[in-house]
Amino acid sequence: MLIQIIANVLAFVPIGLLLGCAFGRMKWWKALAIGGGFSLLIEMLQFTFARGFAEFDDLFQNVLGCAIGFGVYVGGRLVGDADSVEARDGQKSFSLTPNTVSYETDW
Questions:
Q1: How far is the C-alpha of 103 from the C-alpha of 53, rounded, in Å?
Q2: Which of residues 14 and 101 earns the better pLDDT score?
């Protein structure tokens, strides 16, 4: 049971992360709505075709995973922005943007 919960959460972490990377500065509630809609689609298909169990718990756990993934993206963006400020002072910088990841240094 615990393994299934963890798997449901971890399965949607990449979805949240990819939503952040693909759409840039998306609002958190939009990312959760898209992740929830995708999870609902999966649960409806499971119910329709009698494959697996369609459970409300899965929907909640998948949205939680999407939120964690989106939070990782936002956290990385904030760290990247803070490091970019240091770059203006001539220090090393790591920058995470929606399209690229770069590492800059002043020698």
A1: 45
A2: 14
